[in-house]
Specification:
393 residues, 2 domains, four-stranded mixed β-sheet
């Protein structure tokens, strides 16, 4: 009797262990349709959504604290080989967490190259903007969805002064950047307190030049994320984002290229635009373009001559930076015939005379962005896909 009872106990334990050891199939998910359509709306002309043949490209991911991931996307037209309406490299951040909640942020101009964290958890991004030549950008964000421009060293128009950002890292409370111009490297630093104060006041950052242009890469670093269990595997056509938490496992399959094969429907857009618990879609009020309104009239005056600044304002649209000044009069003439007021500024960059062409000025960013939207709708001869809005200091 005791032997039979012992046998039952052993069999029960074996069955229990087998049941526990039996692998549980992990749920496989992909990016929700609502988020795909939100990306289309945020990155397409007049927020009408993607057209057939458009391709959503997944660029990369970045780990945040508390099991959150940042994903970056841009929109490319398969036939035109150029992004929809915006200059090449306009990027939209999307955040996802282990509960399967998705949030979209505001688009910014630039291709993300590197993101680092300071000791307070703030995010700093090195992005590259490919306009006339190459121009690095430094961006700041608290949570990864809303990014703000940070001044680079130099004057207020120094966005095109540098060609490349080679290093960006933290050391003893200072942000270090190694920038390259005309093949020469320069190292700069600014304290976290001064950076945050300048961003809060929308003012200019006071950068200090570092003698010797050297920083130890072993000590200059980015602070790691806290409590993140995501593993990212990027393949040639598909990326796997695997969450290995203590209680569950999630696998996200994100195609590196999502080709839009079905026309975007306004009826579907209105229905999908309502937030749901399943997708937790959050739209952003900030976009890179809006429809032309009455404010767009500011900065549009065909009678204003190039090289003059009859109105005042801190914002402008940069058309390009040219070392060959011969081509500028023709470009200015085309812009003025299209109804835009223009002006130019001459800068000395590493001993070279660089002339920049602008539309404006404008009293606020909204007016500049509306004019940029109008510029992108002009005929091909006056269309400048690499134009962008900047603020003068």
């Amino acid at each position: 009797m005791q032997f039979r009872l012992l046998l039952y106990i052993v069999l029960y334990l074996l069955v229990s262990v087998h049941a526990i050891a039996k692998p549980v199939k992990s749920p496989i998910q992909t990016i929700p349709r609502t988020i795909i359509e939100q990306i289309c709306r945020d990155l397409s002309e007049d927020k009408k959504g993607c057209q057939v043949g458009d391709v959503i490209h997944y660029i990369q991911s970045f780990k945040l604290d508390n099991d959150q991931l940042l994903l970056y996307f841009y929109l490319l037209n398969k036939q035109l080989k150029a992004p929809h309406k915006y200059p090449r490299g306009v990027t939209l951040p999307v955040k996802v967490n282990m509960q399967g909640e998705w949030l979209t942020g505001n688009a910014f101009v630039g291709e993300p190259q590197q993101i680092i964290r300071d000791n307070s958890g703030h995010l700093w991004m090195h992005a590259q903007f490919n306009s006339v030549g190459k121009s690095p950008r430094l961006l700041y964000s608290k949570e990864g969805l809303q990014w703000l421009d940070v001044d680079l060293p130099g004057d207020e128009l120094s966005m095109s002064q540098f060609e490349e950002m080679k290093t960006v890292c933290w050391y003893k409370g200072n942000l270090y950047m190694k920038l390259q111009a005309d093949g020469r490297d320069t190292l700069w630093k600014a304290s976290l307190d001064k950076l945050l104060a300048a961003i809060k006041a929308d003012g200019k950052v006071r950068w200090l030049s570092v003698p010797g242009n050297r920083i130890n890469p072993a000590t200059c670093k980015s602070y790691p994320e806290k409590n993140n269990h995501w593993l990212v595997q990027r393949g040639e056509t598909l990326s796997l984002l695997r969450y290995n938490g203590a209680e569950k496992e999630i696998i996200l399959k994100i195609p590196n290229r999502t080709v839009i094969k079905v026309p975007f429907s306004e009826k579907t857009a209105k229905a999908e635009n309502k937030p749901t618990k399943k997708d937790a879609v959050q739209t952003t009020k900030e976009t890179l373009s809006t429809t032309v309104s009455k404010k767009a009239k500011e900065g549009v005056d065909s009678s204003t001559e190039s090289g003059t600044e009859k109105s005042t304002g801190n914002y402008a649209i940069q058309i390009g930076a040219f070392s060959n000044h011969v081509v500028i009069p023709k470009k200015v003439e085309i812009l003025q015939k299209a109804g835009f007021r223009t002006f130019t500024r001459l800068l000395k960059v590493q001993g070279k005379a660089i002339k920049k062409v602008y539309i404006g000025p404008f009293t606020d960013r909204q007016g500049a962005e509306e004019a940029l939207s109008r510029l992108q709708d002009t005929p091909e001869d006056s269309h400048h896909a690499d134009a962008f809005v900047l603020k003068f200091r």
